[in-house]
Amino acid sequence: MSESIPLASFHSFQPWKGLTRAWLHCFSDVKLLSRGLLSQLSQDKDFLLITENLSSAAALVLQNELKADLTVVVCAWKDEVGLWARTFPSVNLVLVGEQDARAVAEVIVSARQKGQKVCLLRIGLNDPLLEEVVRKSRSNVVPCHVMNYEQPDLRLGHKPMECLGVPGCFALGVGHLVKTADFNGASFKQDWDELNAQLAELHPAFQGHLGRSCISGLKARQFKTTIIDTFQGGRSLSGGMLLAVAWELSSWIRKNIPDKRVGIVLPPGLGATVVNLACVLADKTPVNLNFTMGRAGNESAIKTSELRFIFTAETLVKKLEDFPWTSERIDLPSLLKLFDKKQLLWKRVKVFFLGADQLAENIGVPEHGGEAEAGLLFTSGSSGEPKGVVLSHKNIISNVAQIQAILPPTLVASLMGCLPIFHSFGFTATLWWPLISGPQVVSYISPLDVGKIVEAIEKYQIELLITTPTFLRSYLRKAGKEQLDSLNLVVTGAEKLPPPLREEFDAKFGVPVCEGYGMTEATPVIGVNVPAMGVIKLCGKPNPSKKDGTIGRPCPGIAIRVFQPGTEEELAVNQSGEIWFKGPNIFGGYLKDPAKSALVLSDGWYKTGDIGHLDGDGFLHIEGRLSRFSKIAGEMVPHGTVEQHLMDVLKTGPEDELGVVIVGVTDVQKGEALVALVTREVDKEVVRKGFASKGLPNLWVPKQYVLIAQVPLLASGKLDLKNCQKLAADSL
Length: 732
Known about the structure:
Elements: E1 9-11, E2 30-31, H1 37-43, E3 47-51, H2 56-66, E4 70-75, H3 81-87, E5 92-96, H4 101-113, E6 117-121, H5 127-137, E7 140-148, E8 170-174, H6 185-201, H7 210-220, E9 225-229, E10 235-238, H8 239-256, E11 261-264, H9 270-281, E12 285-288, H10 295-305, E13 309-312, H11 314-319, E14 328-331, H12 332-337, H13 341-353, H14 356-363, E15 373-378, E16 388-392, H15 393-406, E17 414-417, H16 424-436, E18 440-443, H17 450-460, E19 464-467, H18 469-478, E20 489-492, H19 499-509, E21 513-518, E22 525-528, E23 537-538, E24 541-542, E25 559-563, E26 577-582, H20 594-600, E27 601-602, E28 605-614, E29 620-625, E30 629-632, E31 635-638, H21 639-649, E32 660-667, E33 671-678, H22 684-693, E34 704-707, H23 721-731
Parallel strand pairs: 3-6, 3-7, 4-5, 4-6, 9-18, 11-12, 11-13, 13-14, 17-18, 17-19, 19-20, 20-21, 33-34
Antiparallel strand pairs: 1-2, 1-8, 7-8, 9-10, 15-16, 21-22, 23-24, 25-26, 26-28, 27-28, 28-29, 30-31, 32-33
């Protein structure tokens, strides 16, 4: 793995109010994290700064720090000249037409001969062209990035020509100098992404307290409906009223619960939203327990997190007969009925009149959260015992900003919130995102009741549905076309999205199905494909935001490296290996388990255990889990790929009820063998001939088929791998 990129300098400044952009260089309060690096670069006559994104304000930051005239070089088409000229009115700007590497190189050399420093904006230059520019200009390359710190806005790839605002704070990051002969376009992109991730980790907005972020978001929408609970007959709360109720509950929690962590056993809805928000406002850690995980798993979670107090509802207690309740069980509906309505009204009045900071002071919310614990989730235990994933304030706030960057309000105004809150996607995407800055959320208690969810989508004209491929098949069977007309987008996760399912859903409903990817340890969103709506064309070339068969580009602020499993040899673009991530949303370790934490964390990088690769366009391809590969006669066989081929051979489509799960079992002769769990009888000869016609090796043909009633799933929609393995083992 390459050496970590140092941050050259951090700038925090406020320009004089009322001055134009031309006066932006007049600032103060410069803090250097790595003194001397930029001054050393200033002595190098042949160095070239290259960046992916740049605004006029950012260009002036660079110019001021370099203490020399800065020339910004852009490869732009004729119809974009005016736009670029307006973007950089206060620095030297040279526009070179239509991706001409020789012309770009000549401009760089000419500017250096005049004593100017040069920053190349690589938009419009693919890797080969960029490498040619570097060679022809004989440049030593330094990646750089200037991030606006005024707002938690990470929309780097959507409007790169937009000035992000002159007043405010900025951070300047500069990477290692790369010699001309060693420069590689793909490696540069990875270095720049890592630089971006490091700057994002230091973002001041992400060092704040989750409670304060929620207060700001809810106060800004205090008269707008924030949540609608369809299970409670469409009962709703505005942002202001939700904040007032949570404030009242947080006061009760402060007085009556001395512990830092508070357990929550509730389905999605008003109750879960109010109590999670109240815990955070009281500076407590909400621990949403997975009540579908089984008694042993929850006993382990309760013991590990040292829980004594659990919020729930008595109606749920009656259904969960085997749940290991603690002695201090609180019935939330009964407690809320005891609250004084006059006191609630007074708090609502305060929400109206007080500013966000004053409200936070009145409620008692700390100013900073940062790395402190803000949430605790336990992994589902699909392949082992549940682990406690500690999520910090920075993790949650930054991931919300990352989600907002790829799913802006223009695309998503309302969201179906039916995922369990104990699941990471439900916790962040359907709870905290709507509270902080996201869309209105319409909740339902379970993702399993597809009929009720379809009715809610139609009634409330919901625009975004987040689900799993398994549940998506149910929507395909049960929903009429007109019922899903309001949807702009469906995002799937937790498992691989089969292409036939995506195509069938799109054909029937006219709604794009986009595959996403994440994990609890990443809070959880890593990347999502999004429709190409409003994508700006740069240099005559559209900037694609969706590629079928991938999980999209990683969110802004996330760096990716791919390594050879076992050797940690870094692999190049398009080479498959274990995927590692780094960014402000990556967790800091498992609760009370430093050994397991050390296995997956290395210098801020999270080792996912997933196999995949980055392609030349920056899209991430996920090929499977390391645990879902079998080594048969020395060859690595991916279970997910075999499953898809098996379904293709048997000519199954989304309307077909056939379920298939491939499991690896011990084999004396070849080390491992494949067992297929199937939900209907399968003709082995048909499978063998079908695999042969596809040119697949015989090693990929399942050795045995086990008939099961249904595919074992967890409440999150993921495969229950432990149960699948048990079914395969019991059949031998």
